[in-house]
Amino acid sequence: MTGSTVFDKEMSLSTQMMFSTLQYKKSPTSGMHLYAIYSVILNLSAMCCTACNTAEYEIHGECCPMCAPGQHVLKHCNSQFGTQCKVCTGSTYTDVPNGLTACLPCAVCDEGNGVRVKHNCSSTSDALCEPLTGYYCTETQGESCRKARECSTCLPGQYIYQNGTALMDTVCKDCPEETYSDGSFMHCKPHTKCESLGQITITQGTQQSDAVCSHQPSNRGLIIGILVPSLLVVVILSALLWKKKKKN
């Protein structure tokens, strides 16, 4: 049944209701007249808006059957033929019953936007995009990610409090005192205590780097440095004295 036929029958019924309502004009309460007429108008509006059922679409006064998901309307129905549908081709789709004359274009997962294909487009579903590895999504559309940004890198003096995910950037925090991190640690490390190793501190530790230690300087070198020259002097003096005695 066409939309115009449904509307004509409902209009006839509503007209009868209107005449029946007008018989209340002799009533002493005029407010009842207005309320009844207003109710009829509301009924008319509701019937006009619900002429086609949920599986149909209205076009030129006709209620045409919708095309199935994965299809679009090639030719609208008429009094003799139903709706002619055509399958979506190329990178196009429809995911619900529809009265569209063309399928919808599939989304493009552009790596320039930091995303890649998660699920390919089909005639009945749009393409789904996801962030590249090491990126997090900054703009979504339904279940798909449209744009993503590279996850932040923690700076020296900070540690990774929480790794970045596909939905959230990396969270960094500063190292507390007497600890350090080069930015890649999950936890800050305590500075090395050089004295506990029997060494001396050459460079104090900072939030960005550990302390630098060195072994205690040995006295052996000092002793050797004094003894060797002394022995040489003794040897030379002994040789000179021996030569002098030999001449005498």
UniProtKB/TrEMBL annotation:
<feature type="domain" description="TNFR-Cys">
    <location>
        <begin position="87"/>
        <end position="129"/>
    </location>
</feature>
<dbReference type="GO" id="GO:0009897">
    <property type="term" value="C:external side of plasma membrane"/>
</dbReference>
<keyword id="KW-0472">Membrane</keyword>
<keyword id="KW-1133">Transmembrane helix</keyword>
<dbReference type="GO" id="GO:0006915">
    <property type="term" value="P:apoptotic process"/>
</dbReference>
<keyword id="KW-0677">Repeat</keyword>
<dbReference type="GO" id="GO:0004888">
    <property type="term" value="F:transmembrane signaling receptor activity"/>
</dbReference>
<keyword id="KW-0732">Signal</keyword>
<dbReference type="GO" id="GO:2000406">
    <property type="term" value="P:positive regulation of T cell migration"/>
</dbReference>
<dbReference type="GO" id="GO:0050830">
    <property type="term" value="P:defense response to Gram-positive bacterium"/>
</dbReference>
<feature type="transmembrane region" description="Helical">
    <location>
        <begin position="222"/>
        <end position="242"/>
    </location>
</feature>
<dbReference type="InterPro" id="IPR001368">
    <property type="entry name" value="TNFR/NGFR_Cys_rich_reg"/>
</dbReference>
<dbReference type="GO" id="GO:0002720">
    <property type="term" value="P:positive regulation of cytokine production involved in immune response"/>
</dbReference>
<feature type="repeat" description="TNFR-Cys">
    <location>
        <begin position="87"/>
        <end position="129"/>
    </location>
</feature>
<dbReference type="GO" id="GO:0050829">
    <property type="term" value="P:defense response to Gram-negative bacterium"/>
</dbReference>
<dbReference type="GO" id="GO:0006955">
    <property type="term" value="P:immune response"/>
</dbReference>
<keyword id="KW-0812">Transmembrane</keyword>
<dbReference type="GO" id="GO:0007165">
    <property type="term" value="P:signal transduction"/>
</dbReference>
<protein>
    <recommendedName>
        <fullName>TNFR-Cys domain-containing protein</fullName>
    </recommendedName>
</protein>
<dbReference type="Pfam" id="PF00020">
    <property type="entry name" value="TNFR_c6"/>
</dbReference>
<dbReference type="GO" id="GO:0046642">
    <property type="term" value="P:negative regulation of alpha-beta T cell proliferation"/>
</dbReference>
<keyword id="KW-0325">Glycoprotein</keyword>
<keyword id="KW-0945">Host-virus interaction</keyword>
<keyword id="KW-0597">Phosphoprotein</keyword>
<dbReference type="InterPro" id="IPR008063">
    <property type="entry name" value="Fas_rcpt"/>
</dbReference>
<feature type="disulfide bond">
    <location>
        <begin position="88"/>
        <end position="103"/>
    </location>
</feature>
<keyword id="KW-1015">Disulfide bond</keyword>
<keyword id="KW-0675">Receptor</keyword>
